[in-house]
UniProtKB/TrEMBL annotation, chains A, B:
Species for this entry: Pyrus ussuriensis x Pyrus communis
Gene3D superfamilies on file: Medium-chain alcohol dehydrogenases, catalytic domain, NAD(P)-binding Rossmann-like Domain
Stored InterPro entries: ADH-like_C (IPR013149), ADH_N_2 (IPR041694), GroES-like_sf (IPR011032), MDR_fam (IPR045010), NAD(P)-bd_dom_sf (IPR036291)
Residue intervals passing through the bilayer: none
Domain Alcohol dehydrogenase-like C-terminal: 103-231
Organism domain of life: Eukaryota
Protein name: 2-alkenal reductase (NADP(+)-dependent)-like
Keywords: Oxidoreductase
Pfam name, any one: ADH_N_2
Amino acid sequence: MKKRLGKQLTFVKPIRGYGVAKVLDSSHPEFKEGDLVWGLTKWEEYSLLPNPENLIKIHHTDVPLSYYTGILGMAGKTAYAGFFEVCRPKKGEYVFVSAASGAVGQLVGQFAKLAGCYVVGSAGSKEKVDLLKSKIGFDEAFNYKEEHDLDAALKRYFPQGIDVYFEHVGGKLLDAVLLNMREHGRMAMCGMISQYNLPEPQGIKNVMQIVLKRLHIHGFTHRDYDHIVPEYYEFVLPYIRQGKLEYVEDIVEGLENGPAALVGLFTGRNVGKQVVALAGH
Amino acid sequence: MKKRLGKQLTFVKPIRGYGVAKVLDSSHPEFKEGDLVWGLTKWEEYSLLPNPENLIKIHHTDVPLSYYTGILGMAGKTAYAGFFEVCRPKKGEYVFVSAASGAVGQLVGQFAKLAGCYVVGSAGSKEKVDLLKSKIGFDEAFNYKEEHDLDAALKRYFPQGIDVYFEHVGGKLLDAVLLNMREHGRMAMCGMISQYNLPEPQGIKNVMQIVLKRLHIHGFTHRDYDHIVPEYYEFVLPYIRQGKLEYVEDIVEGLENGPAALVGLFTGRNVGKQVVALAGH
């Protein structure tokens, strides 16, 4: 994991990533020419995908196809499973989301409002914070880069403490969150982007809070929740069609702009789900 | 919590602790003179306990009364709830217990064997390690003070990794355990004795493992499991009566020896559950 992006990327094999594709030819009985699919594809214009059984056929095309890389794809599954299955929120609870304007975070915030929770998000620019409070509908949001004391910031936004934390960031923010959790709080951990490119991860000092407050901390990945997709679509598609869920995307055109978009994730350059469009969409 | 024991103890009020007592007088309808009770009592020979509803009446006196400070008291409830309810062990799983010869750890190890698991304990002296392997019945045990590299030690005892960790210690041991957990592993956190007297807690670096291995980490206290006591007694009393569960106690006589026994917990002086006997037992 160390300095994974510090080295020059060498494209011996194409990078894999979640994408949307049109079937040109298939010997698999479930897929035929012209079908649209989403799943683990490759960073190339034409791909040979030897495990089509892992792809999911797209049945609903009245929504933007790019949504199948986000709200109807991995990000949506992650947000839905992580928030409802892992965190088990109750009405009126206090929810904190880090990386809140990202592919997953913006959905967790909206799901929290649908569940009757109070939700605050953190992000890394004024533009993102404004987006969270206006378009996406978080109750509050703050720019973590402008807070010298993250513990104090969380105490300002959560004087009663945090019941549910959706973790994407790790490091100092996680340490501050631990201090502000309420008894029996739940933390869904699906990533720690602040730590991926450090030569050594930052130490978390407040783990004793796990004991003192009887916290539940669950690491998870969307891959353990494939079975939840039909239930999730039944839940989410009506909201999308009625315009009751926003999904902010940051679309760059052309494979040649993919690497810069990828690296931009680690500096927070993107606003919303980062998508690279290869063909007309 | 900082330097709590660094200051001189001043006995303005008697220390509270879990004890066994005989009722001398009571106006509570459930308790009468001569009854034996266990629960939160005080470090004094005669006590006025204004909340007797929190005490539990002792019905089984064919076992040592001191057991109600341990295997039939808080420690037993902690071990049973933490292992079976929090960790939900499956037959054949790999279990690691820190502070394994202590009041709770020695029980977790024996419960793990009853559940068909492979169990390894760590402790801080050769005497304790021998006790774990002989009398208490752990599959393996090691002296953490003799291991320069705790990660390597755990890899030696758990080449397949750890499914269940029962945590009492925290600090460097927790960091090493995180590296050695298996996917979907569970960690029951009921204490971190290595951290209580540090001016600042040690940072835990390997929290990313929670995400990578989809770990479940639950802080808990026996206080959330009062309802489990009848079920626990039904489980544990037959084993005690049949001599199928060992319970090692370290009994000092006399209240005047209590403070030294308390401080000894933090240097690991005691072997087994530390008990202070005030009256004949």
